[in-house]
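Appendix B. Raw example, untouched.
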Amino acid sequence: MSTVVDRKVKEDAIGLLKSHSIAGFFINIITSAFLAFGFEKNIDQDAKVTWWLVMVSIMICRAICFFFGQHFFAKNSKYDLYVFSVGAVATALMWSFYPLYFYQNASDLELTSTMVVIAGFAGGSAIILAANKVLATFYVLVLLLPYSILLTLSDEASHQSLGFLGLFFALFVFIKAIKFADFTIDVISTKHQNALLLSSMEQKIQERTEALITLSNIDSLTNLLNRKAFLEQFNALIHNQPETQSFAVLFVDLDGFKGINDTLSHEIGDQVLIMAATRIKNFNSESQLVCRWGGDEFIVVLPHKSVSQTSAFARDLIEKISEPYFDHNYRVTIGATIGISIYPEHSQRKEVLIQHADMAMYQQKRHAQGSVGYFNETLRLQLQREFNLRDQLITAIDREELRLVYQPIVNAKTGKPDAFEALLRWNSAFGPIAPDQFIPIAEQYGQIKSIGLWVLEQACQQAKKFQLISPNLTMCVNVSVAQFQDEDFVEQISNIFQKYDFAPSGLNIEITESFFASDKLGLMQKIKALQKMGVQISIDDFGTGYSSLSSIQDMGVDIVKIDKSFVDTIQGSGLSIITAVLLIAKELNYQVVVEGVETEEQANVLRDLNVTYLQGYYFSRPIESEQALEYLEAL
């Protein structure tokens, strides 16, 4: 920084010295003419004319150097200073020479006038030459000292007085020349230091502004465009797009990424996310826009020529993302599911295109994870209905649209019900909605916990009414994995028992085989805690899901419910499977309920196999609570 300032100071100093040159040339010529021709002619007149001509010649040479030197030297360079200094020194010597040479024959008036002129030039030089301390002080001393000393050595008192006055003035101007020079250089230096500082500040401000712009447009983790910047560029792309041009919006969602965060660490998850983002960004140079939409979701926009070409690109991208991720301490594998919408076929608005691609991805992830799906109008209507149902389901309890119906589970030997299964029904604003439609929605959007808790409360309350007629009756309630995974689930069940003074032995919680694919250890702890309270645990729809016999053994459930699909094929392979399950259950000391019994023939076959409990339309369809009470009273 100091080197730059020093260079700038020198350049400005030279420029300041040269700034008064033209006026100085004229003043020197006119003033020197005054001395040469302004007094009575004497024997030195020819010498004075010669002196004046030399002075004029010097001024002309300096003017020539001033006007034409810039063509030979860089502006305000050290050569400029050298030329200027030579001219200034020559001028100073000429002024010093005049009084010394013409002193003997000069009148008192001429001597005094000469002192005034020289003193004036010395005083002016202290200011005009202040940009160069050496030159300014030299000019003062050369002009005043020789002539003043000469006068002090004169025999005449008036001359001596004038000489001493010149010496005092020389000292005064010399000191002032030094101060002016220091002040001038300091001002120039301060100006450039401030200018450099300001420039540095402006540069830093510019750099920080650019950094802020970058931060506001770039995702800090992956260095891809963030959502804000992507939408701006996407909007510009749409507006600048020729009407005949088409492009595809790919909504990419990573499969299995949550498991990395949960099992390894968020740090490793971030590293995998960075590597996946790099693969997506570098996969194809044709990709016009790539952004991190949020979490483990990305959007890629690329030219669309045909469905087959875009599909091939998406499949290859999934394959690239699915390659293993290596680091020093781990090797992980994730996948990806991609939904695609097409501009302008599906929409000409960026928000709608993204929403449609997201819909396609969401649907594909539910039914064929790890593959590519396209948006279509049927999908939009289907998902729109689903979203509408979701919104309605949020307030379904408050609007009293939900209710329970009850299907008896009969003892195979007595034909009388030993239990009822509580089944949820929803009469929505759109009409009756089947459980297989709204329960997955409730599970998907996190509403199943509140609904499930409501079902448990309603079922326990109704069971107490049933037990007034049949004291040993049990109420069976289906519980989802999401409910079971709630840390407070066991405590919530206990609170229901206390609130309604309900015996735990009167509740049978039904779970599906899919539970065994979840957090087995945590679920087993909850199951053991519930069984310790007296609650019975059943495995529902056995044989259609995970089917891990070792897991069933470890969990020690109380009842196994055989799925209806095996009853439907009881005349064939279904009979063998039911027989095998009965043998296993007997060895493990489980009770067995067979669902989906619809005919007398099926019921008789199952009785012959010594099945304990039967459930199905043959005995009763699901019925309202009032009908269930009448059903019990009629036995």
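End of appendix B.
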